[in-house]
Amino acid sequence: MLFDSRSAKQLQPGSHLLVQGCDGLRLVASQSRKTWTYRYKDSAGLMKQVRLGHWPEMSLAEAVSAWGEKRDGRSAGVDPVTSRRKAALAKNGPAVSSTVRALLEGFRDHLAGLRQAEGAARAWSALERMLDEEPELARTAPREVTRAQAYDVLDKRRDLPAAAKKLRALLGQAWDWGLDAGKIDGAAPNWWRSLLKGQLRSKGKIVGGEHVGFRRRVLSQAELRKLLPWARANMSQSALDGLLLYLYTGMRGVEIFALRTEYVSQEEDGWWITFPAHLLKMERDADTVDHRVPLFGEALEIVQRRVSGAWEGWLFFTGRGGKFRPYHRNTFSSYVYSLMPESAKAKRRTGEGLICPVVDWSPHALRRTARTLLSAIDCPEDVGEAIIGHKPGVMVASYNLHTFDAQKWHWLNRLWLVLRSLDNELPTKND
């Protein structure tokens, strides 16, 4: 059983730590405290969680004991959330939310324990926007929301199917939470789970007012020969560094722009990034491990330069006049789009160098390009997947615990040489 009290003390609001060997036991950080929770799926396959106590008042041993009791209760057919809800109702009576707005504002606090800070903020933003756009629904008591009302909310947003689908999922989750927590009358139906299920399908992104469908965009070598020299001459330093790290390392954008000085270290075989497991996309899986990325060449130069000029530990930040803030992946995505010919900003520009010569790509296409180039130079499949941080399948992960560190070093070095040969601004020899 592994639990690092130092990591627990440094846990940021919206993040959490998993306790290995205790499936579902986690320490969740909010703005004011850290809470032990037990997270599980009920018999219907719905995700639920129950609070066990606060750390450090409740020690690890006490949390494990409480977790064991809840788990044993589930084995005996007692659902922890339902049991706690019934006990609370018997003691205090139901604290039913008076309006949909009140329900969702209560759900906002619940979201903070389920998602990282950025994800929780975006989810609440979508719900808050819906409340402002639907004042009649916001004033309605949750138990009085009709199927027709719920349908109307989603039907109005058919032209934005991806956003409507996410909103439907959030509202369904909020209603489930409200029913479990006694915020909604237990007899009230959850219309959101069944309405328009499978009917909110996106036709792909829109470029120039037209649907272009779904495409897994990869930049060709000819496009990279145009993009790399142009980017060096025209992109901001933060954006250029981010673009190059996408290509050199294959890391996710959320990982690149969340890099901190403590994630970078020099080891016996060279420099490495060790990105912590609890911040990874797969952090909910108990067997997720730190993502390790070797550094050399220009990638190492970029990281070392940013480490030496870091602000409060962040390698990527923005601002001026002493007022700084972290530079996020979404900032980079917006910046890249502003360079595309179809963007409103690009249409107002007059200089040729201010419009990207390679069109119709997003930051994630850079990561996909790095993975595709690895395959093109005959990188083994399992090594390529390890390089970009994909988890192996369940059975493979159960038996193959190899870390691929040496192979990552070899194949990322070969990828770097390929990219150097495509960049007219750099020498092609490996000095």
Automatic annotation (TrEMBL):
Listed Gene3D superfamilies: Integrase, DNA-binding domain (3.30.160.390), Intergrase catalytic core (1.10.443.10)
InterPro entries: DNA_brk_join_enz, Integrase-like_cat_sf, Integrase_catalytic, Integrase_DNA-bd_sf, Integrase_DNA_bind_dom, Phage_Integrase
Keyword Zinc part of the UniProt annotation: no
Keyword presence, Ion transport: no
Domain Tyr recombinase: 214-412
Molecular function terms, GO-annotated: DNA binding
Stretches that traverse the bilayer: none
Family that this chain belongs to: Belongs to the 'phage' integrase family.
Domain of life: Bacteria
GO biological process, one term: DNA integration
Keywords: DNA integration, DNA recombination
PANTHER family with a match to the protein in the record: PROPHAGE INTEGRASE, PROPHAGE INTEGRASE INTS-RELATED
Protein name: Integrase
